[in-house]
Amino acid sequence: MSTASKVTKVSILGTESIHCGDSLVPYIVSTTLSQLPSSTYVLVTDSNIAALFLDAVTDEFNLKIKESGSKSRFFVHIIPPGEGTKSREGKADVEDFLLDHSCTRDTVLLALGGGVIGDLVGFVAATFMRGVRFVQIPTTLLAMVDSAIGGKTAIDTPHGKNLLGAFWQPSFVFVDTAFLRTLPKREIANGLAEVVKTAAISSEEDFALLEANAETLLSPPSEPSSSSPLLTLITASIATKARIVTGDPHEKTGLRNLVNYGHTIGHAIEGVLTPHLLHGECVSIGMILEAEIARFRGCLTQPSLGRLSRCLSSLGLPISVNDPRITKLPEEVTGNLTVDNLLHIMRIDKKNSGPEKKIVLLSRIGETFEQKATAIPDEIIRKVLAHAVRVTVPTSLSDEAKKHITMSTPGSKSISNRALVLAALGKGTCRLKNLLHSDDTQVMMAALSDLNGAKFSWEDNGLTLVVEGGGGSLTTPSSDKEIYLGNAGTAARFLTTVCTLAKPSTAGATTTITGNARMRQRPIAPLVSALESSGSSIAYLGSPGCLPLKIAPGFRGGKIELDAKISSQYVSSILLCAPYAQHPVELHLVGDQVISQSYIDMTVGIMKTFGVDVQRKVDPSTGKLLDVYIIPREEGYINPPEYTIESDASSATYPLAIAALSGSTITLSSIGSGSLQGDALFATQVLEPMGCKVVQTASSTTVTGPPLGQLRARGEIDMEQMTDAFLTACVVAAVATRPAPEDEPANGGDGKIRTRIRGIANQRVKECNRIQAMIDQLAKFGVETKELEDGLEVYGKPYQALTEGVSVKCYDDHRVAMAFSCLAVLVKGTILEEKRCVEKTWPNWWDDLENKIGIQVEGVEIPHATHTESKLNSTSSAANANASASASTIVVPPVPGQSIILIGMRGSGKTYIGNLAARALSYRFLDADVLFEATHGSLPTFVREHGWPAFRAAEEEILGDVLQSRGTGYVISLGGGIVESEGAREKLKEYVAEGGKVVYLERDVDEIVKYLGEETARPAYGESVRDVCLRRIPWYEACSSHRFKNDDDVTLFFGNLVGRKLTLPDPLSHAKRSYFISLTYPDITAAKPHIERLIAGVDAVELRVDLLHPSGQPVQGPNVPSTTYVADQLGQLRLMTSLPIIFTVRTQAQGGSFPDNQADALFELLKLGLRLRCEFVDVEVTANPEHIKYIVSNKKSTKIVASWHDWSGKMAWNGGQVKEKYRLAASFGDIIKIVGKANTVDDNFSLRQFVKSVSKSPLSKPIIAINMGVHGQLSRILNETLSPVSHPLQPVKAAPGQLSFAEIQKALFLLGQLPARRFFLFGTPIAHSMSPTLHNSGFLELGLPHVYGLFETPTVNADIRSLIKSEDFGGASVTIPHKLEIMPLLDILSPHAKLIGAVNTIIPSVRDDGSRILVGDNTDWLAIFNCVQARLVDGITPQTTALIIGAGGTSRAALYALHHLSLKTIYIFNRTKSKAEEVAQAFPNEYNIVVLDSLTAFPGAPPSVVVSTVPAVSTTIIPGTKGSLYLPASILSANRGVVVDMAYKPAVTPLIALAQQISAWETVQGVELLIEQGYYQFESWTGRKAPRGLMRETVLTAYRSS
């Protein structure tokens, strides 16, 4: 490199063609004109850049050309912004401009803009006239350091990004940092990701400069500067890339692959998250993940990876797919971040091939493992990418016991955080060795940097942290800077006091600290109260007693009293900062017994090392130590030159536990009896008495486990001094089956082997309620526990008897994850969810488990709780090639999903409705008031003794705990006044924002006043009930996602609530066309009688808000419906359907009825649509830009349909106006809708051409493009995404030319777009089957050209084999006797069919590669499930039992259904008992199937559900009938229940007749089951919602007549 007159020149390929500086426009122009003489200069830019910089550049060019007297021509061509321009069409546009202006081979092109402009113009230059010169003038940081350097040029195609291009070196690259002054911080960070990349692969010096200047780099100097850190780093980054490009200009040697560090995985993530995340943000995540691969391979140390993480985070870049910027994205986006999908995207990356991917591995900061990318197998990448891991049990546990492993553990989190605070506050420089590199310490360092308390740098390749202490001099951060602490509890407690030491940076300045949702629930009030008593000013910004806090400068000191029974970290926080108080501190610990004394002793010991000797008072009369500490205030801390942090004793418990559990020997070389940490006692005080051999020195610990199954239980362990280790003790105790030592307290007289763990009450307020977590997760393994006031009991069980295949929820708690990973060594198939939570204390735990301990782990995907079954190897239905896109398997009724919260006034019916809803959903009901009284006593007494504020604070704390610990499977009723607390309101709003459902139960105010005037069980309000109601109603509305009125149908409302699932159509996949029906009723309740037929076939429902009117009469003229009426109508619609709702308010100019001049009223309605969580909201592009901005910012999970309507008939689909409106819609909409008017049929072909052109980009969004009017009907037929349809039953059509769903299907068939398929019933005898009637009525109603017929054969013969392979085979039902015999002919069985062992449905499907397969499924169980659930009045309790009669294939489906209904005991009876036993043995033990000898007695409660799967002719209710199974009345001895008979002839079977004699028993006839299972078959074949009511009525009519 050489420098001249403030311009630094970088050489590439032997030429100094890259010029870097600041404010270079005059220099750029003069250099271009003098060095690249030409007859024509053409500058290409986009409209965004033109508005900012074009005038200055153009003026300078024109001036210089004029001054020189040159005859050169200078042209400017402005193109649309965005990636969509980088296409074949965009390239042709530029080329046509050049040709139109008679440009020749001496033309010089100038690319002024970001990467899109540079790539496009470069490719034009490479091909125009066989190659012309061009100049890169990048205006974004990303383009400056990446795309502008190296000569790569390209455009995108529908098949992917950058697939057409050339290597074409620019004559010059001018890097002018002045262009960056208009760039948002996010865009600067986006480019800095590439700067981090080049520093990471080539220069630790540059990397250190990045670490030291994060805040400065994000804010470019406002004045010209040629020596700013930003310009220095940009130049260095360019030089690195230039050097690599020079060494490998055409990617032949592999050297150039080095600049792809972070890109292999980053590009895959970008392929999913574009446009929500920027390129650099995706590469940032990719760099971390690829560094983790290097760490797993042993190339890179955790300290280096920690440095990389901190550096990227300090620049505001995401480092994980769990970043809030990603997790808040809609599920249809994040749902594609599966490991399989990411690997698939990597596979088609041109750099990769086969089952290996090319990844650049770091060996240290500034150096790579190889001078090229390394081939990495997919299984390693999968291990890093997956959100969960499965631990592999060693094939021979006896061999495992022979192992002797020596290893060390990471540095102590507790000591690391204390040492960081002390070194930062101290005077001088301290080198910290063995610092824990984790999330917690990263948070602490970042916070201390924000407080300007110290300077940090690294030595020894990141193994040593150099801290230049600030001597206690701290200042508050900038006013807009919050210190975010994530889930770091230690940092939160310590920094609360540290922040009081900060001097104000400006008058009145304060410091705000906050954390994640769990951190904002964890208590901190005792510490705050103690500091406030010492003169500090601290305000709660959310819930009282929790973060966030606003902390003013000032720590007076003096005598401080502190309640230390909750956390010793409160004590340590004050101790650490006390030397810098204004007066000497005398700290008195008050209240009950101090918790975790050993951690306080640790703090005092480390403070002494840093020069402050804390004195603990002694009672002179007894010599007993008192809980009073005297902290001197002299010089403060004096930093030792070096301080080595001992290994983490809590983390050490995990490898030691593995030794204990597996019988192996493990030595830890870094923790022993000399430790400062209480958890170091774990080996000697927990494992040794349990039968382990323990050898411990001052600095090492060796544990040898007993033979497998020989661990002893413990009568009682007091773990108060090692609380964090109790989780490890629990998993060891889970398999401790030998009695406790004789010298320990008796376990009790019940004969059970148990271990009692005490002294751990504070573990309820850690990262989660750890005691509850251990109870819940151990239960999954079949381990019994009992909760105690300050601990729990664990009942040991032989390890061979533990349940296999358990998926452990880790609650984002590192201790939970690592503890259960130890147990997983013994239990096959154990999965640990949320694997990344270990990064808090042992980031490379999974690596060390495999590489050091030798226990293999594999990455696995965890499906969502309410996920439908898998898509069977990425298949999609082919039964209806273009009109259908069913998953290739049947949708499963949802298992209990996210809990539902009920809010509303007392007296609104929350308890009653909540119980009904829980019963309908098979959820559990929880009344928060009952939970409050169980915790705090009666409500009136509490309020009387403590006051309303204390009650609200306690109520809010319970809310936080409930949301954390009961987040799934509950209907939770909250107290009416929960909304009085701002913190509680924020919690509820946050729950809604994250996809939770909060239902506001509305009730008339007068009714509530009347009810509460008589009610005395709750404390009086102290004001009128009416005033309370009116004050709270706006809060209830603001905090809720849905509303429920007392006269609504509970089962329907809540069933729709949990059943609704939004799937945004894929704009690139035309396997399924999607539709919505546009409802035009002024009163939506008028649609109720017809709703099943109205919505049959469609994917969504449009609520035309502008057509709503309370009169129920069609709207005539302008109409502004009230928000109250609209909210009620929306609620009514939710009751009718679970389909997604499109909320549309169309103005008169757009063909609707809403007045054009009422923009603010329209805006209020749109906000209502957002607040009530409509899945789609339609927003016209001509709306007020501020309104659009608000809607986009507050849409949460709602999708925006950005629409434009032109009724004039003058709109040209190939004109510029449409393109401009399209770009505007694409800038904020998730779906684009453009509607014109057709004058002739030819207008539809212009429309199709437009859609084809805009859909070519891989980044294009779904588009609805239609023409109105009769001439435009063809466009409605051919539109593929969310086509609006009407229905003959509607009062009017929503728009002229609108067609019904059935009309469109018929037209598609005639156009050859919808092939006719044949469907069959296989079996015998089937002549009288109702299945053809059922399915053909559905086909006819939906306009589908398919036919369902009978195919009767005694066996599965060659005819069936041939038929299912035919091209027009659409699917089949299978009945006896073929349900088992058909299975070998199928390619795949659904999980249901596999376990049931019988198939009743065949679904042809097509894989991604185009190959056709046959999928076998079973819908019988779904029919049984739904029919029983709908009729079981008393719901299901742990005591509810069921009876199945018969042992054939259908009995298996019944067993499967009843188990999914959460029935804990299922009886089965068959006349041939061995067959019943055979069926029972085919199912897992957890089904708890009891085979009966007879039907006259039951070993437990009598059944509440009875299912007969035998022919009706084989049964009787008349005793003594020969040859028939007698059904005694005793089988129906339960108070009430449900009887299901699978036989549908005769209509009233003997079992049905028996049940009809008992009024309290509900009955389900066989024909009902036939119809119910048929719905699922129809929907799986067609991908369309079945017209259920019509199909049912048609079948029943035919059934009755027969």
TrEMBL record:
Biological function: The AROM polypeptide catalyzes 5 consecutive enzymatic reactions in prechorismate polyaromatic amino acid biosynthesis.
InterPro entries for the chain: Aldolase_TIM, Aminoacid_DH-like_N_sf, DHQ_synth_AroB, DHQS/DOIS_N, DHQS_C, DHquinase_I, Enolpyruvate_Tfrase_dom, Enolpyruvate_Tfrase_sf
UniProt binding sites for Zn(2+): 194, 263, 279
Entry annotated with the keyword Transcription: no
Originating organism: Sistotremastrum niveocremeum HHB9708
Name of this protein: Pentafunctional AROM polypeptide
Subunit structure, interactors included: Homodimer.
Catalytic residues as annotated in Swiss-Prot or TrEMBL: 251, 267, 837, 1205, 1233
Record domain Shikimate dehydrogenase substrate binding N-terminal: where: 1321-1402
Binding site for 7-phospho-2-dehydro-3-deoxy-D-arabino-heptonate: 130, 146, 152, 162, 194-197, 241, 256-260, 263, 279, 350
Span of domain Quinate/shikimate 5-dehydrogenase/glutamyl-tRNA reductase: 1439-1502
Chief place of localization: cytoplasm
A cellular component term, taken from the record's GO annotations: cytoplasm
Binding site for NAD(+): 46-48, 83-86, 114-116, 119, 139-140, 161, 179-182, 190
Residues bound to ATP: 904-911
